[in-house]
Amino acid sequence: MSLSNLASEQQGAVYVPLEALQIAPSMDVAEFSPALHRRPVAVSSDPERSTIPQHHVATIGADRIHRLAGKGDLSLSNLTSEQQEAFYVRLKQLQIDPSKVVAEISPATHQGPVIISSDPERSTVPTHNLTILSVDEIKWLAGNADECFTSGKMSEHHDLPAIDPSEIVKADPGALGAEQNRTLDMAMRAYIYGNSARVLHWKNAIEKHRFPTTFTVYAVQNICINASNSPLLIESVSGGNIGTLKVCEGGWIKATANGNLTVQKMIRCDGSDCKSC
């Protein structure tokens, strides 16, 4: 394999992915150029169509696929391939680098309540803040899809403002009274967590007075809670991504703020020992 036109560091960078992709250097193609090939250079899993010879690995998990694609070295072997893929999709949605995902939170790593907060001084779980520009973006990140209500999966249960938003739209930002702020927050909750079509006429008022805003996100591979580190307390409006959540004897979850917590696998354990569950 001739790499003489590359610096030594660049040559090493070629060999590392070859090993990860399970391709022997002897199987590497030396050159493709107009002198050798006149038709389009095609890369395909179909060997009869592909110009470049392909190599196949028989069995590969989703976590390894993402490592090969540069998406982080996470241990998600206790999840199915579909759950692993869903975990990575949610990571991308929350704009969290896989290298920033917390590996484990359990009684062995933390005693006392496991707190999720936008305040880094208070939060047990490292969180990240996103700048959100629209109410539709926050609904997509952490709300309920309108389809949940139109399909009948969820029932309409959010209070709706009894007034027209025109006066609030006209008001200068920061000039709303207490009652106007309460009404605006009611409309925003109904938009994000309910069927937004019911308060669509409030969208301009919501975005004028509540956006841009910051939104807290976090991700943990594995969380286990029992009596010694409960509750798992969600106290900030947030969006979370957890691979496996174990709730052992004495463990409980408390939410004092709205949010969306995605868990790929949730396990209820009869005993209090996270390791034996």
Layout of strands and helices, then pairs:
Elements: H1 8-20, H2 62-68, H3 81-93, E1 102-105, E2 114-116, E3 128-132, H4 135-142, H5 147-150, H6 166-170, H7 178-193, H8 203-210, E4 213-225, E5 232-234, E6 238-247, E7 253-255, E8 259-268
Parallel strand pairs: 1-4, 2-5, 4-6, 5-7, 6-8
Antiparallel strand pairs: 3-4
Helix pairs in contact: 4-7
Please, what is the average pLDDT?
85
Cα shape: extended
Q: Count up the helices.
A: 8
Distance between the termini: 51 Å
- Note the main sheet: 5 strands, mixed
Rg is 25 Å
Q: Using DSSP, what is the number of strands?
A: 8
Which structural class do you get from the secondary structure elements? alpha/beta
Helix content: 25-40%
